[in-house]
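From the shared-data thread, chain only:
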Amino acid sequence: DAPTLSRYVMKQSRDTDLVILMNALATSFKIITTAVNRAGVAKLYGLAGEVNSTGDDQKKLDVMSNDMMINALVNSGVCSVLVSEENEDPIVVPEDKAGKYCVAFDPLDGSSNIDCNVSVGTIFSVYERSPGTKQGSVDDLLKSGAHCICAGYCVYSSAVELVFTFRGGTVEGFCLDPTIGEFVHTRYNMRFPDDGGKRIYSANEGNYNFWDKPIQDAILAFKGGEKPYSARYVGSMVADIHRTLLYGGIYLYPADNKNTQGKLRCLYEGIPMAMIIEQAGGIASTGLFNGKVGRVLELTPDAIHCKCPIIMGGPRDIGIVYDSYKAAGVDVPEL
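Structure, as tokens:
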């Protein structure tokens, strides 16, 4: 009587198309799990010799994971448009297979770590095709996070965990049980720790000299005082966000002098992770971006691969960042 993914989605939504979509995603996650686990044996480490849409060198597993997800989603019969980090252009599903959902995804986030056996993951966001249209378009995806109906990630590590949320719902966690080949409900109503949790900050401090002064001051505040924060930075966004959600603390990838628009992709990294963090009781801020400090979920992507800065955590730690901005004369939202 295992509480499986399909059972949960059907109970929550009563929408068979949504069950089919989540099953198609789950199938691709299972296949990617197998590929990641056999990467050394099957000689899947190393570069594929290509560059993806955002200029990153593609690994063999990037290409394979991308193909698996596209194949599963196109043939699910419920998708109309797909956007992948690995493809420069959107993928329009043939009309005879098209459905109502538009899905954006990063098939293997953190793949630069794969050769040294560090956790990697998949991130996705789901939108609906505009009512009254037979075929979806890119415009159905170029909307703010308020229009995202489902967001999630799957982390491939010592255990394979799928974490997702529906718009306005709770954040739920499912663990892949290899004995039955199903994702089983193991984490119920995941919430950011009320007291902020462990005192951990997670940022690539190699960029310190390129950050604006308030971000530098916030990092110094985390490291100072009687009880300095611990630094934890994996370099795989899925792993860092998963730890932050479970343990507490703060994750920062702000804009800087090198990357004035930020480094992470808005549509399939920023918005889905922000939706998960906020619906778990945390805060997902842009930091100072385009002249103001705002919410990631209020950003409207202007291109499928556009970027955005991200600062995610609980009120305790986001408050320290906001205080640094206030001291610099920058208006910040209320916590």
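The two ends are 42 Å apart (CA to CA).
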